[in-house]
Amino acid sequence: MVKVEFLGPIGKAPIEIEALTLADVAAKLKEDTSLTAWLDKCAVALNDTMVNELSVALKDGDKISILPPVCGG
């Protein structure tokens, strides 16, 4: 199981899912219509490190953070 947390204004509680890669996580999240507007705009961190590749392998206990765009100074 991996933990997925949604930061900022997404306003969704963390979830735990079975996933072998970030592509698996992306596919699961796309099933949730409340996230559809956010997913294409968000950055992703794996265990607090930014990642860009969906092929990244996951381990049990990993934390995925979905980071929406923000503005400020």
Keywords:
single chain, 73 residues, alpha+beta, Ubiquitin-like (UB roll)
Write the layout of secondary structure elements.
Blueprint: E1 2-6, E2 15-17, H1 22-30, H2 36-39, E3 43-46, E4 49-51, E5 63-67
Parallel strand pairs: 1-5
Antiparallel strand pairs: 1-2, 3-4, 3-5
Walk me through what this model shows.
This protein has one domain: Beta-grasp domain (Ubiquitin-like (UB roll), Roll). The chain is built from two helices and five strands; from the N terminus they run E-E-H-H-E-E-E. It has helices at 22-30, 36-39; strands at 2-6, 15-17, 43-46, 49-51, 63-67. A five-stranded mixed β-sheet has the order 2-1-5-3-4, with no helix packed on it. Strand 1 and strand 2 (15-17) form a beta hairpin. The chain is globular, with a radius of gyration of 12 Å. The N and C termini lie far apart (36 Å). The model has no long low-confidence stretch (mean pLDDT 93).
